[in-house]
Specification:
Largest interface: A-B, 21 and 33 residues
Radius of gyration of chain B: 29 Å
Helix content of chain A: over 70%
Number of helices of chain B: 29
Radius of gyration of chain A: 11 Å
Order of helices and strands of chain A: HHHH
Shape of chain B: globular
Number of strands of chain B: 36
Mean pLDDT of chain A: 91
Number of strands of chain A: 0
Distance between the termini of chain B: 39 Å
Bound molecules: iron/sulfur cluster, FE2/S2 (inorganic) cluster
Oligomer: heterodimer
Number of helices of chain A: 4
Strand order of the largest sheet of chain B: 13-12-27-26-25-14-15
Shape of chain A: globular
Structural class of chain B: alpha/beta
Mean pLDDT of chain B: 90
Chain lengths: ~70, ~950
């Protein structure tokens, strides 16, 4: 696994485990915001949503948009 | 302090609340009901002669030396077996008693060798003292006794057994039974012939069940059981109280010294974690501190293919600082990072994270707790609001049901296990607590002398969450929840949501049995017992955390405790058993890349400001890299320098090939350690470390207990570890001027609300303090969440079982799980350099007879262990401790390199590696793999020091 593949795996794993949360997308976004360093976030934003589960993809998109908006 | 033995009150303390007053030798004394006359006398400063009594074990009344006279009573009762009564009038010294005692002593001495002057215990022998105390001057019997001149047993590497000196007082037997709980010793023969035996007549101590805890040695009043070190160096002349540096129990010891030489480590009776007990590691395995392989001078080299060059400290610091600056200038500040150690003190850890945040200018700091208990931090913080266990160790005395999941306390946390076993056996007519063990392996505690678990659920590795959810299903659907507790203490909506989830038919034990392989009826019974059996306490270890759902499992445990109201008082709670001595402290000190000391997120502006003002720097508000992320970034070529204090990530972290690739890609790896460890094979700078005997500071154990570590000898390398970090920071231009670790603690207290009341002075006074230590709780907090959860309302979190991505298949049909054993510690860097190798010379692979037969493997055979990540070889042992389909090994030895086969799957929330589940295949083999051979060669090359003589 290279780093981006690993990040995709991690994001999907987080999404699977937070699937039962009331607001899974927000929970996944919050988790990644809190625990990933800036480069990891940057790498996955640059990669896009390929290979991500729907919840993970939505969360990444939400984070990327927030970052671009800021 | 000049040498004085610890005070012995003769019999154990009584826990009664009722007070009884009596008169002893004309003086009034008040003691708790149930106290012996002997102890009452000792408490008022009167020592009654005694031989068979000691306060670590129940009295036995065999020696008849402690006789007293009591007004209104006939005869001369033994004071050790006579409980006090109100108004009793006791005389301990009368002519009649003196005569009787002399007679008793005379008998003993007539059968004892009279070589006091050359005896190792001379000056530290109770028999000698008591002969003096009773005024024995001559012996009328003909000395031709039967048991002199017997052969000594030298088999144990740390203590000798000389049966000729035995007075058959049975203190050792009782210590082994009551204190340690191993029941290894028996008395053979009678009268003059009686002899202590470690099991079978043919057995010596080493071959016996004995686990070398030292309790019998401690209890023995003569030189019969005596430390080899005392024989070698002589008796100690002073002592210093300090804390064991091995495991998370955090036993308090007296380091008993002769000059600067350590004679022995003796468990300290006033130690609140251990109450006078110890295990083989803390008690005996400290020889590594003086081991010849210790590196005492700093060393540097430009490339890892060069030999090391020894330099002076000044050059080492200047070179290190210039390398870090060069890399920061070239690749940017985020190319630097640091790893703190759970083996180091709080003060050292605090400084390393401060160096990274304030000096390197980023948050790339992590700790080896990443690979063990990071899910505990995440899980307990989410559910309860604080990243720590809820109880003190004493709490177990009030438990009625003990649930152990993913922990092997008799091996991993032996001294606490002894206390737990004492509670499980029951005492003084009080029935023992019930025991539930959830573990793929039949650990020792499942069935040990006078203990039998009510339920052992041997689950398939990786299905913890499914088992706990099934237990919750039973508790909710059978109406066993503690509704009053939940309504008062927890968020009811969250509870309802969770209860609805666990009640679903898909979560029933019957439905999950095919996944977990746990018998549904057995699981139902275990769940009922936990919910209804009285005070229920959960203890868990790395078998919970080191999984892809480690954090979920911790939360599932917290859910169970809240649902049954088992939180917030003695006897209950959720208790992580921490691996290394200062895992709790390392986490508390802000070693994680996303949080500052005291578990406050780095994005929290107010907290950041507090630190910024104190440190005079600006802090980065973004979380930094965790260890596995650092290695990924290194392989990507953007992470270039690592300061690694007291950790051996190459051996301890998963997927060795990936770790070595990451390390090899860095330009500056700084290893700060005692020995040239495995990581040092890839290092460019080696800064020698100091042992726990050579420095001041504090460790925090698994009960949140902050305990002093005291310097008993000068550091052989010249500097304490905190000084090394400070000198490095100074070389990098930081204005640090601590003159003592107490000043570092003052800074921690100033910046961390839960440590507000902690200082070295307070610790000296109290012995130890359990955080939070605040204005409201100036003496600390043995039990947490008493009136409410730290986070307000307890939070139920739905934890859905998600199978791991590590799957068995035709190529890798078996599941490997890893663990540890009593005599070795972690990667073994210390214990392998002691005589503890007598018990564990190599890592063995446990395999079930059926799986072994399928592959034609017998115990002792070399086998190849292969996974998708790599392969290694080691020897097999065939046993039904493991279930069919499961194999097990330890990772204490570098040559085995068990982590060559572990994968880099990890916990979803924290990246804690999934050590406990790897799909593997086993086959017969006739020797080391190519990897092992290449690695041997690399290590040999890498350890060359320029003098021409290899360092190892
Ligand atoms: S060392 Fe410990 S286990 Fe061994 S015989 Fe003595 S008390 Fe028992
Ligand atoms: S070995 Fe020591 S403690 Fe044990 S019976 Fe003999 S004298 Fe007593
Ligand atoms: S290793 Fe653990 S149990 Fe053993 S003496 Fe040290 S702190 Fe106590
Ligand atoms: S000390 Fe009381 S009988 Fe031995």
């Amino acid at each position: 696994m290279n780093t981006v593949e690993r990040l995709i795996h991690m994001a999907n794993q987080i999404a699977t485990n937070l699937a039962t949360d009331d607001a899974p997308v927000a929970a996944v976004a919050d988790h990644i915001q809190q625990f990933w360093d800036p480069r990891m976030k940057m790498l996955i934003f640059a990669h896009g949503t390929d290979g991500l589960s729907p919840v993970a993809a939505a969360a990444i998109k939400q984070l990327a948009d927030a970052q671009n908006g800021a | 302090m000049t040498y004085q033995p610890q005070k012995d009150f003769g019999t154990p303390e009584s826990r009664s609340n009722e007070a009884v007053s009596l008169t002893i030798d004309g003086r009034n004394v008040t003691v708790p009901a149930g106290t012996s006359v002997m102890r009452a006398a000792a408490e008022q400063g009167t020592s009654i002669p005694k031989l068979c009594a000691t306060d670590s074990v129940k009295s036995y009344g065999s020696c008849r030396l402690c006789l007293v006279e009591i007004d209104g009573r006939k005869g001369t009762p033994a004071s050790c077996t006579t409980p006090v009564e109100p108004g009793m009038v006791v005389h301990t010294q009368t002519p009649h008693l003196a005569k009787l005692r002399k007679g008793v002593m005379e008998l003993y001495i007539s059968d004892h060798p009279l070589d006091c002057l050359t005896c190792a215990a001379n000056g530290d022998c109770e028999l000698q003292d008591q002969a003096g105390a009773v005024g024995l001057r001559d012996v009328r019997y003909d000395v031709q006794s039967t048991h002199l001149g017997q052969e000594k047993d030298h088999s144990n590497p740390y203590f000798d057994f000389d049966p000729s000196k035995c007075i058959a007082c049975s203190r050792c037997i009782r210590a082994c039974d009551e204190v340690q709980g191993t029941l290894a010793l028996t008395m053979e023969g009678r009268g003059w012939d009686s002899k202590i035996s470690a099991g079978l007549a043919s057995d010596n101590f080493l071959e016996s069940e004995c686990v070398s805890c030292g309790a019998c040695v401690q209890a023995c009043p003569t030189a019969t059981l005596v430390e080899k070190k005392v024989v070698e160096v002589g008796t100690p002349e002073r002592s210093v109280v300090t804390t064991c540096a091995y495991c998370g129990v955090g036993c308090t010891f007296r380091a008993e010294m002769r000059g600067e030489q350590l004679v022995r480590m003796v468990p300290y009776k006033d130690g609140k974690a251990n109450r006078g007990h110890s295990c083989v590691k803390g008690r005996f395995a400290w020889g590594y501190a003086q081991h010849q392989e210790r590196i005492l001078k700093p060393m540097i080299r430009a490339s890892i293919s060069d030999p090391w060059r020894e330099v002076e400290w000044d050059e080492a610091f200047a070179y290190t600082a210039s390398e870090l600056k060069r890399i920061s200038d070239k690749y940017g500040r985020n190319a630097l990072g640091g790893i703190t150690s759970s083996r180091c003190t709080n003060e050292e850890t605090f400084l390393v994270q401060k160096l990274v945040r304030a000096g390197f200018g980023n948050n790339n700091v992590d700790t080896c707790a990443r690979v063990c208990h990071s899910p505990t931090g995440y899980g307990l913080k989410t559910t309860f609001g604080t990243s720590a266990g809820t109880q003190d160790f004493d709490s177990v005395e009030d438990s009625d049901v003990i649930l152990i999941i993913g922990a092997n306390p008799t091996d991993g946390h032996p001294v606490f296990a002894s206390r737990m076993k004492r509670r499980l056996r029951g005492q003084d007519g009080r029935p023992g607590a019930k025991l539930i063990v959830i573990d793929p392996r039949r650990t020792d505690i499942v069935r040990s002398p006078r203990i039998e678990a009510q339920h052992h659920l041997p689950l398939r590795p990786g299905t913890n969450v499914a088992v706990l959810t099934a237990m919750a299903h039973v508790i909710v659907t059978e109406g066993l929840v503690d509704e009053a507790f939940i309504r008062e203490r927890c968020d009811w909506d969250e509870f309802s949501h969770w209860a609805e989830f666990v009640s679903q038919a898909r979560n029933s034990p019957e439905n999950l049995q095919p996944v977990t392989l746990v018998d549904a009826q057995e699981l139902r019974a275990a769940a009922r017992l936990y919910a209804t059996g009285g005070n229920g306490a959960i203890y868990y270890g790395l078998g919970v955390t080191e999984h892809s759902q480690g954090s979920s499992t911790v939360m599932a445990i917290a859910n169970l405790a809240m649902a049954t109201g088992n939180i917030g008082r003695r006897g209950v709670g959720v208790n992580p058993l921490r691996g290394q001595n200062n895992v709790q402290g390392a986490c508390d000190m802000g070693s994680f890349p996303h949080e500052l000391p005291g578990y406050r997120h780095i994005s929290d502006g107010d907290t950041r400001l507090l630190f910024e003002n104190d440190w005079g720097v600006t802090l980065d508000s973004e979380p930094g890299l965790r260890i596995p992320n650092m290695l990924d970034a290194a392989v990507d070529g953007v992470f270039k320098a690592l300061y690694c204090q007291g950790e051996d990530i190459l051996q301890s972290d998963p997927n060795t090939a990936h770790v070595s690739a990451g390390l090899a890609a860095m330009e500056c790896v700084i290893v700060h350690d005692l020995f040239l460890n495995e990581t040092a094979n890839y290092a460019h700078i080696f800064l020698p470390g100091s042992t726990f005997l050579e420095k001041n500071g504090t460790f925090t154990n698994a009960e949140r207990r902050i305990q002093p570590v005291r310097k008993v000898m000068t550091p052989m390398n010249g500097l304490e570890d905190w000084e090394v970090t400070q000198r490095l920071a100074q070389a990098m231009g930081l204005d640090w001027n601590y003159s003592h670790p107490s000043e570092i603690m003052d800074e921690i207290a100033r910046l961390t609300p839960t440590f507000a009341g902690v200082s070295f002075a307070r610790l000296d006074e109290a012995g130890s303090l359990q955080w939070p230590v605040t204005e409201d709780a100036p003496d600390g907090s043995p039990i947490m969440h008493i009136d409410g959860f730290v986070r307000g309302k307890g939070k139920f979190v739905v934890t859905d079982y998600v199978p791991t991505d590590e799957k068995t298949g035709p190529r890798f049909p078996l599941l490997l799980t890893t663990g540890r054993i009593l005599s070795q510690y972690n990667v073994g860097a210390q214990t392998r350099r002691t005589d503890n190798v007598a018990w564990h010379p190599e890592d063995l692979l446990e395999i079930h007879p059926v799986d072994a037969e399928d592959r034609g493997i017998k115990s002792g055979d070399w086998v190849k262990l292969a996974s998708r990540a790599g392969e290694t070889t080691l020897r097999a042992t065939v046993t039904d401790r493991v279930a069919p389909g499961v194999v097990y090994t330890t990772f204490h030895h570098a040559v085995t390199q068990a982590n060559v086969v572990t994968t880099d799957y990890s916990d979803w929330a924290t990246n804690c590696p999934e050590y406990k589940v790897t799909a593997v295949q086993i086959s017969a083999s006739n020797g080391p793999t190519e990897w092992q051979e290449e690695y041997e060669a690399l290590s040999a090359r890498s350890r060359r020091v320029e003098t021409g003589v290899p360092a190892e």
